[in-house]
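User: My instructor asked us to take a sequence, write out its structure as C-alpha cells, and then describe one feature of it. I'm not sure where to start. Here is the sequence I was given:
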Amino acid sequence: MVVRPAVVIRHTAARPISGWTAIVLGVAVTLIASLVALTLTDNDSRDTRNAGLPLRPPAVEESSPSTEPAESSAPASPSASATPSPSRSRTPSPSRSPSPAAPKLTAKYATTQQFNSGHFGTVTVKNAGSAAVDWRAAVEFVAGSRVTRAWVVSGDQNVDADRTDDGVRLSGRIAAGSTIVVALSVSRPERTSATPRSCVINGVPCQ
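Assistant: Let's start with the prediction itself. The C-alpha cells for your sequence are:
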C-alpha cells in the first residue's frame, strides 16, 4: 500500500502594502483605465463614421438603350437635285423625193420578122396622158440600112414619115389615152443586126 504524502496548507498572513507600492498600483490602474477608455472612444468614433455607409456597394443601374435616334454630328449632305436630261431633238427624217412620174408619152420598137436582106419592125407610140400631144420619133439602124416603107397598122391618126440615110423620122398628133402602131419595112446589109442603133420620141429614149 502506497502512502501518499499529505498536502499541508499553510495560511500566510497578508502583508500590508507600503505607500509607494500603493501609489504605483494606483498610477498603473489609472493608466489602464485611460487606455481602455481611449480604445472604447476610438471604436465609438469608427462606428459613428461607418453608421451612414451602406454595407454593400451600390448596384450599378443598367442604362436602357435610348429609343430616340442619335443625332448625327456630320451635317446632312444636300440632296442632289435631279438634272433634267436634255430632251433628244428628233431629227426629221429626210423627206423622200417622189419617184419621177412615168412618162405619159412613150415609144417602143420591136422587130417582127427577119429575112436575108432585111426585116420588118414596128414603132408603138402610146399617150397615157389626159390631153392630146404632138410627137416626133426617130429610128436609126445600122449603116447601109434603108426604110423602104412605113404605114399605120393601128390607130386612126395620120402619121408623117420622112426617110433618112439609115432610118426614118415619124411625126404626128396622138389623142389622150390612144396608141399608134407604125410598121416599117427595112432593107439592110446581110449578116447585120436588125436592132436599131437608136430610137427616141420627143428626145426620150424608146423603151
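For the description part of your assignment, you could build on this observation: Strands lie at 105-115, 118-127, 133-140, 146-154, 159-163, 167-174, 179-187, 198-201, 204-205. Try explaining in your own words what that tells you about the chain.
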